[in-house]
């Protein structure tokens, strides 16, 4: 056992999560991730939130668009309630330890593990997987590094990231086992709340996504009040009234989705929403959802637009966040190199 790993490790309660700045934040990103990041700010945890630009370029990103999207995502975080003096807010490429630990984890993780990732399979389904970037395949090793380079203990994400977080635990466990240390924590996924999987407004069997060809399928965080109202009014539903209990929504995915969205926006449980609105037709429920969504979302899009008028201030926030991040990542990477047996620079 190396000296570095010999001391029993205790881990500070620390939250890490990331979002790709690949353009077009959706209501799914907001309810499944950002809103919950805001809720986790507070005395219980150190909170670290990252714009994962190195992940975004695993598929082609126009350089100017990447810059703009990174700033817009930062504006989205702040407009939604992330306080950059409390949470650490930064873009991944400014903290080189992510990529450095990512390489080590590429040597810990196995090809078979990566090949079993459903996101890899979905992204290459029906396409020529040979033509996908090597980075897209290795993506989850970098994601594990994002988390473990902070020794993060909790990672709030939407349901679609669950498998990647299981892999993160596998990588931590294999590293600890291979080197005979207790160095990396087995991080807890935090997949909670009414909207861990927000579905398309046009098809209740598909995830709401920025890559859906139909703009009517999603609410974008930059949509104004009129666009939000129109998309909810036109959302696919069914002719039945809302039932008395959630069980009655089992075979009604579109209806269930709108109830979940309402619940998450109102900070209520889906059970509460159903009991308050039982018996209502969508002609009644949708206007209530429009009012709630506009009330909660329109101020965020207005604030995002205001923040985007001062890109220099956004860049200052990202730079300051990266400097704070490196105070945590540099010692953890140094210790990891030591465990692995890399010769350090002379003192
Ligand atoms: P990304 O950028 O695709 O999505 C960011 C976050 O939004 C959540 N999300 C949703 N939640 C509910 N319903 C939806 N329809 C929906 N769409 C997206 C995602 O679950 C995610 O929490 N691999 C990650 C980024 C990442 C990361 C990390 C996350 C890189 N490193 C380390 C956590 C920790 C991704 O592509 O998320």
| Structural class label | mainly alpha
CATH topology of the largest domain: Rossmann fold
Number of domains: 2
CATH superfamily of the largest domain: HUPs
Quote the beta fraction. 5-15%
Strand element count = 5
Mean pLDDT figure: 95
Give the N-to-C terminal Cα separation: 23 Å
- Count of DSSP-assigned helices: 14
Helix content: 40-55%
Level-2 CATH architecture of the largest domain: 3-Layer(aba) Sandwich
CATH class of the largest domain reads Alpha Beta
Instruction: Name the ligand types.
Output: tryptophanyl-5'AMP
Shape: globular
Helix-strand sequence: HEHEHHEHHHHEHEHHHHH
Rg measurement, Å: 21 Å
Low-confidence stretches: 1-8
Largest sheet: 3 strands, parallel
Secondary structure blueprint with pairings:
Layout: H1 3-6, E1 14-19, H2 27-40, E2 46-51, H3 53-56, H4 63-80, E3 88-91, H5 97-108, H6 111-115, H7 118-124, H8 134-148, E4 154-156, H9 162-179, E5 188-190, H10 225-233, H11 253-266, H12 270-277, H13 282-308, H14 311-340
Parallel strand pairs: 1-2, 2-3, 4-5
Helix pairs in contact: 4-13, 5-8, 5-14, 8-9, 10-13, 11-12, 11-13
Bound molecules: tryptophanyl-5'AMP.
Task: Explain what you see.
The structure is a single chain. The chain is mainly alpha-helical and 347 residues long. It folds into 2 domains: 14-196 and 310-340, HUPs (Rossmann fold, 3-Layer(aba) Sandwich); 215-306, Tyrosyl-Transfer RNA Synthetase, CATH 1.10.240.10. It is built from 14 helices and 5 strands. A 3-stranded parallel beta sheet has the order 1-2-3. Strands 4-5 form a two-stranded parallel ribbon. Helix 2 (27-40) links the parallel strand 1 and strand 2 (46-51). The model is unreliable at 1-8 (pLDDT under 50). Bound molecules: tryptophanyl-5'AMP. The site of tryptophanyl-5'AMP (TYM) has 25 residues, from strand 1, helix 2 and helix 8.
């Amino acid at each position: 056992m190396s000296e570095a790993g010999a001391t029993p490790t205790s881990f500070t309660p620390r939250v890490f999560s990331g979002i790709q700045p690949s353009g077009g934040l959706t209501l799914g990103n907001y309810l499944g991730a950002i809103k919950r990041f805001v809720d986790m700010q507070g005395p219980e945890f150190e909170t670290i939130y990252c714009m994962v630009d190195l992940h975004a370029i695993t598929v082609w990103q126009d350089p100017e668009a990447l810059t703009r999207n990174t700033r817009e995502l930062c504006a989205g975080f702040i407009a939604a309630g992330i306080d950059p003096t409390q949470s650490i807010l930064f873009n991944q490429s400014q903290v080189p330890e992510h990529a450095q630990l990512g390489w080590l984890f590429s040597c810990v993780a196995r090809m078979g593990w990566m090949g079993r990732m459903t996101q890899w399979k979905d992204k290459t389904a029906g396409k020529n997987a040979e033509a996908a970037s090597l980075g897209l395949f290795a993506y989850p090793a970098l994601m594990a590094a994002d988390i473990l380079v902070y020794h993060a203990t909790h990672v709030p994400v939407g349901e679609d990231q669950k498998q990647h977080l299981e892999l993160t635990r596998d990588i931590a466990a294999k590293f600890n086992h291979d080197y005979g240390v207790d160095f990396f924590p087995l991080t807890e996924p935090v997949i909670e709340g009414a909207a861990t999987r927000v579905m398309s407004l046009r098809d209740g069997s598909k995830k709401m996504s920025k890559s859906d060809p139909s703009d009517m399928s999603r609410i974008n965080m930059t949509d104004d009040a009129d666009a939000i109202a129109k998309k909810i009014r036109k959302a696919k539903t069914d002719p039945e009234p809302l039932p008395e209990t959630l069980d009655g929504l089992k075979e009604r995915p579109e209806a269930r989705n709108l109830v979940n969205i309402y619940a998450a926006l109102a900070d209520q449980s889906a059970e509460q929403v159903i009991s308050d609105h039982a018996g209502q037709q969508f002609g009644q429920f949708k206007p209530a959802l429009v009012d709630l969504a506009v009330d909660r979302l329109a101020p965020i899009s207005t604030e995002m637009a205001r923040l985007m008028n001062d890109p220099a201030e956004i860049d200052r926030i990202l730079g300051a966040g990266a400097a704070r991040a490196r105070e945590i990542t540099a010692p953890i990477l140094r210790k990891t190199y030591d465990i692995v047996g890399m010769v350090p620079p002379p003192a």
